[in-house]
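[Automated response] Your request has been received and processed.

Submitted sequence:
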Amino acid sequence: MKTADLHFDYEIVEDMLKAFLLNEIQKFGFRSVVIGLSGGIDSAVVCELAARAFGPRQVLALLMPYRSSSPESLEHAGLMVSRLGIESQTIDISPAVDAFISTVPEHEKLRRGNIMARTRMIYLYDLSARERSLVIGTSNKTELLLGYGTLFGDMASAVNPVGDLYKTQLQGLARHLGIPEPLIAKAPSADLWEGQSDEADLGFSYEAVDHLLYMMLEKRMDRQAILSEGIDHAFHDRVRAMVVRNQYKRMMPVIAKISSRTPGIDFRYARDWQEKING
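Generated structure:
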């Protein structure tokens, strides 16, 4: 499969995502957004899109370092704040996180990382309530499919403009938008502990898994067809298992259906009601 199969016309994608943000945020009566700016490429792209869609004054970025966070992450987040001219706040999450993890053994890095991610979201949603702004998400398609994220942590948001972009596509969009090269070139990391790396955690590269996921989802190729393309069977089976196992992370909480109209099942969004509210 050619690398070009994963590429878009990013000028069109930019226009689509800006229109998406404006429509989804404003139809609920909001005019501004808040975003957790980590210093990574995903949040940088979303922040750039939001600033272009709403204007810099309607975007508030929250920088939330922990004491073991990489200084480079804070520096790169600062690059985006300066580049866009948006308002930002910095909150050291160390005291709040430490209150939770004091009873969690040091070797349980996943539990500690989840606590850190959820603590950041507490601060972000509190800021959202204070500013009457909506939280926009930064989880890309690769992460969502693999379940590589913390439920009600970094995966939480009101609106996510990049959830249908694979990581490698998001890198292409970043270059189109002119995101500073240091953010694009560095190894992807959630920065949950010192030296943490996405690809080291996963055990494979984003480029390799994106090609596999593309064959599975977009081309709807079965196992035999994918293996005939030279994909290792163990790699295929492991990735497929991750996608299946983490379906619960991609869903709203499942509600037991008892009545004739159940939220999320057959009562999704009453657009006529919204028109009356706005009218």
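Summary generated for your ticket: The two ends are 51 Å apart (CA to CA). The first helix runs from residue 10 to 26.
If you did not submit this request, please reply to this message.
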